[in-house]
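TICKET #2291
ISSUE: user wants both folds in one file
ATTACHMENT 1:
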Amino acid sequence: MADTIDFNALTAKAGLAGTHPAAVRRRIEGMEKLLEGLFVIPGTSTRVGLDVLLDFIPVGGSVIAAVMGSWLAWEARNLGMPKHAYLRIAGNIGVDALLGAIPLVGAVPDFFFRSNTRNLKIIKKHLDKHHPGTAVIDG
């Protein structure tokens, strides 16, 4: 009989499950890294992620990237962020989707307009103000 893996228990053990602000912070940081900083461009220190890479898939890639970026907005909504911050996040996703929808060359402006990084900063600002215990000190 094969062993089964309880993914819910694994995510809970790793602190990635639930609506606790610290778990939300870890999830949004992970998603931002996946979308904006997954790979380093050889010979530079510049990072790119799936958001830029998906722009090379006509039409569908931009939609997939927007849906993945919308997940950050969903997390922001669940944190009870103010509507003005939530609207800024949605605006960033919209601009990113429009830039990415330009066939092939859409990756260039999308490379410079990192909506997910912008959205992460907005959410982290809220978390730092309202849930300071979730902050991670690097160093």
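ATTACHMENT 2:
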Amino acid sequence: MALTGAARVWVWVTAVVTGLAAVGLGLVAVLADLDTAGKAASVAGAVVGLAALLVSIIALLRTGGSGAGSGGGRTVRTGRGGVAAGGNITGSAIGKNSKVTGPRTRPGTAPAPREGDDVRAGRDGVATGGDITDSAVGEDSER
């Protein structure tokens, strides 16, 4: 995954600050006593832990809590007994007791995929995030 300009700057800032902190803690351990170095390391660890918590909360809020990355992908969800598909469906049987009885569907031109559409089927529902072509959809359906 390529970094944007702002992300690259933050990576470098984090690397420089981390390097300086490591050098500073090393100097405290060498120049001061171990008790002081232990206290400084404890404070630094607490600060780093809080910073990590802040970054993880920001990342969670930016993705909407879905766990999805920033790729703008599609979320597919279904309730109990539901059927959901996140893309285009051609020549398929979807749903309880559905069946395909006719000849195989000839491949055609697939529609351009769309990004970011959420697909949700409620309880015992059927939903798709794309085009349904030449398919049996729903209970006891036949193509």
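RESOLUTION: both attachments delivered.
EXTRA DETAIL ON ATTACHMENT 2: DSSP finds two helices and eight strands in the chain.
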